[in-house]
């Protein structure tokens, strides 16, 4: 419970990055035992502020006070010694080591030169009992679920005597159950006097767990509120700076013909355990089918098999009536299927490629982006290039040879005062011959360049005029950057991707804009089938609103949409029908209008469909 | 953005070379010689007169090809340490076509054009096939290319030793299949006149500038074009940068992996062919000693940029060419050149040292990702 004692204060913090004022006179105070939610969109300055407090960045101006004493941290080590612990969004754990080893890493318990692993395990067990953080010290990190790994991170901070905990987007990777557990842990910690700063952009979570809410926007603190006096709408408006539609407006679906047909599909996961067991469903044009389920119940594998990224063991997949079971990703894309992948960093984009390159990531080989010569025309093109290039070069070189022999060489010799080259060979080596050698190399390179340019221009000229009537016009021999950039400019405007230019590397955009980029690429092709996996994971409210609207727009334009999401609210808001997956099976198929949040939650936890849905005759159990 | 790229691409390599030269000078002083005289000798031996500059340009030629081979692998996400092996395979196959396939089309110019082309092609194919095996192993079994290419270096050098074995007439042991039958030295017969790379410039002195330099420049421009302007280059770089994303976008990562190794091997084979067809006019076992490993430094110094490789290969060619004159003029052993080259590699690989010495601010970047981890496909 919060007390009056202030443990942490940030006073008038300013931090300037090139082109961005990340923190603009920010003030913040944290009381002992308080859970303070720091709410804001991506790029609002939350992480910058926390990194300043944690000693990773240095503020341009302003002060940090810990328990009333002003501090300047040069590194996180000093922040840790002042009792500040941080749990990053991406865990800083070593996957192959045990829980105890990870916790004590850097502060090892030793006996002489040896590690005392028994003592380390004892201390970890003691901490986990003291704070109700059940975790086995001997377990190996990579074998633990994400929620457990997070607990290890928290124990790691507590082991270093943290009294102030900073949790950076802690719920982004958790299942609904794990989120509940985390909140319980946070309340326990707060009762024991630990103060927590909880960074998030999820409104419901803030209202559920925080004692006080501070909202940031554009590098400034724009307001603070108490959960009891706030609604999701009021917080969202504060965060985004305008009214936000939290509910998606959509008309009733008008499903038409079947686009995606999945029959008895089975597959294994990476560890060769069965992940899909005889899954069957269909998606029609003009409807959104939501796949609900706790993460790790086969949804990832389902999407991967459908899109050609994983090999299915048995069963059948038909798209637009065409059998595409275990087809290649390119065949699936060519069958007019758009795929927003679950992991955008890994699959969705290439961080070092520009925005425009990322926007043609799976259509770069099609006109007008590229029209390379086919294997049949390639020899023709090569001859067309080589013959003029060699001819032009030979003509120019012969011309230069004459000039060299008649004009330049006598001139060089007279310059050095040499009449008989043979007699003066030692001196000639340093003077005229050296000049002649450099001249030969340079002239040959220049003439070669000129010849190549002329020949290249000739080939392009022929290839532009060449094609007979009825053929698609060739844009040139190679990757057509003009067309790629034009395509990108259109999508950047249409999908409101915030980027300095289309030449910016995709990886330097914010998470929400990266996702908009992926969405723009996949939706922009107007696919007949749209597979969207976790389309709004880890992105800001404004972007979520936009992407939700786009999904509905695609549906209304006649696309069949398969939506996979761990966010129950998202599934409820967008789906027309919902299938629930549990342990690789579809345990229920229901109409979205005829099921409650609670019923879905029970189904996702493995309850029997007949028991859950008995009171609702409208729903059809599978 | 642009200025950061220039600092990284040009400034840091220049400072690395500069620092290596300074530290090399300290070593020379410690060894009791005059560093000024040594470096003067080095410069004189590399650029001082027409013969020196020719030597530099000739030494640079195979380094351009082998540097391109390493860089091409890097761009496709592969660390091809097997350039040395592919290079000697290429030099032997080009020698074989050079001496065993008489080409006489009546006209000597036409014969030379055809024979040189065929011999170069043979060099490229020899290197490409030798590179293809680790590529196939990586693509279909996940065997890491660093391990397999190192092993294939040994296989290549021993295979060639067997093929070139001089035999022992006294004991009645016959020579190897490609030996010229001199009974003493392990080498191939001389290549035919028609297979020799045409000489472009012949100053008084032993060394002549052959066509290879210009082929190297054309190769560099072609590789630049291939990587940045074609759909194949787009696919190749995508596999190198993020292979899951490449798979997602419908690219066959296996196909690209094999092709990358094939092209990298072909470039390495051409590097070997340059020595055989342009310098030695036969294959002798120590003609390409260490070329495939210098190539790694050349590629790293140029940040794998094909035009940068022309510059860094020129630098390394000059150091190789000037070493003898340096020893002659100042008494400093040529090995000091290798020390400087090794220091350059160290500073380029660990650029944080250079950033620290010269207080260059900038994001502490976690180096370029050169290769994927063990067992990943």
Number of strands of chain A: 22
Terminal-residue CA separation of chain A: 47 Å
Rg of chain B computed from alpha carbons, rounded to a whole number of angstroms: 21 Å
State which percent range the strand residues of chain A make up: 15-25%
Low-confidence stretches of chain B: 363-377
Question: Looking at the chains present, what oligomeric state does this protein adopt?
Answer: heterodimer
The CATH topology of the largest domain in chain A comes to Rossmann fold
* Helix proportion of chain B: 55-70%
N to C succession of SSEs of chain B: HHHHHHEEHHHHHHHH
Number of helices of chain A: 21
Structural class of chain B: mainly alpha
Identify the overall geometry of chain A: globular
How large, in whole angstroms, is the Cα Rg of chain A?
Answer: 32 Å
> If classified by CATH, what would the architecture of the largest domain in chain A be?
3-Layer(aba) Sandwich
How many domain regions of chain A? Answer: 3
CATH superfamily (homologous) name of the largest domain in chain A? P-loop containing nucleotide triphosphate hydrolases
Side-by-side strand order of the widest sheet of chain A: 6-9-10-3-11-12
Low-confidence parts of chain A:
467-476, 617-622
Helix tally of chain B equals 14
* Largest interface: pair, residues per side: A-B, 43 and 38 residues
| Category from helices, strands and their pairing of chain A | alpha/beta
